[in-house]
Design goal:
376 residues, alpha/beta, seven-stranded mixed sheet, 13 helices, 13 strands, globular, binds pyridoxal-5'-phosphate
Length: 376
Amino acid sequence: MNIPFLDLARINAPYMESLAKATEAVVRSGRYIGGEACAAFEQALGALCAGLPTVGVSNGLDAISLIFRALIAQGRLAPGDRVLVPANTYIASFLAVSHAGLVPVAVDADPRTMNMDTVRAAMAAEADPRVRAVLTVHLYGRPCWDKTLAECARRHNLAVVEDNAQAIGATASVPGFNGSATTGTLGHAAAFSFYPTKNIGALGDAGAVVTADATLADTVRALANYGSDTRYHNIYQGFNCRLDPIQAAALGAKLPHLAQINGRRRQIAGLYNRLIDNPFVTKPAIEHPDGAVWHQYVVRVHERDAFRAHLAGHGIGTDVHYPVPAHLQPCYRGLSHGPLPEAEELCRTVVSLPVGEYLGDREVEYISRVINTFRP
Ligand SMILES: *Cc1c(COP(=O)(O)O)cnc(C)c1O
């Protein structure tokens, strides 16, 4: 068998006709900035997020950055404030904080969840009064939200921003309540990415901001449109970070299938967890009920290169998310941080397996069998 890590053409094949129809309608409309496609997509995404105000933007990086800039414009944050960020996230989480004039504070990972260690996050907020916000990243589609983080945010009055780029449609249990909520509705505002590899991917770059604060939503919309609230009236020195209507139309064609896409990914993760049985391979823990949407299915292997070569030799593609943490990147030379041993160990050992919703059980069984024959 030949199973690439991710086949985007295969991801989009089921939507070929609806994608063509939706994007053609934009071309025929003669309106290529904003318009009906963007409004309809914002409406549809908002409906998935408890009906909250939603603003389509250019990409996920800009979505996070615009949220922080809007919080600064509102006076909720000030330039130079510290923001807790998980050390093992994608670099965009850090860059978005920096671009807004804030300072990322890297928090070590919990090796069990591979998300931010919320106890360490609380300690970092306790230790430094300059920490005014937390960017919780639902890495690999697994929610990072618990009682410790919620209480820490409340006690220190932190702005809570979600990096929901990898977790559209995930559900997290809400501390203090007898229920769960969808990620993207847990804090003050949430950023979404529709980069083509994400669970709902566009045909290029796209993103969105969801927030319960309608004023914050208006500020994000203005900032993303040259800082203009009405035409030729600029209240901020803003940016051009608008959602492209061609992308909005494509996303509108795919979004109705979110539950099915995430459901299949959840099944695949469950299959892997049942079938992979190798003492040299550590599987991710699955919560019950499973609120994750498995943007990545990530195992840990000390002999990672040999493991990846073994799979490649059997026609199976893998990837690494991510090999170098932000604080060890050249662009963050000089960023002050404490010891981050768990995050660094994860970056050395994580391997992402194919988890595209198009995979059949036979393919997942084959991959699991090959994994079980791996010996370092
Ligand atoms: C993809 C991603 C982003 C950035 O989104 P883009 O649309 O690629 O700019 C930010 N954070 C995380 C965790 C991501 O996975």
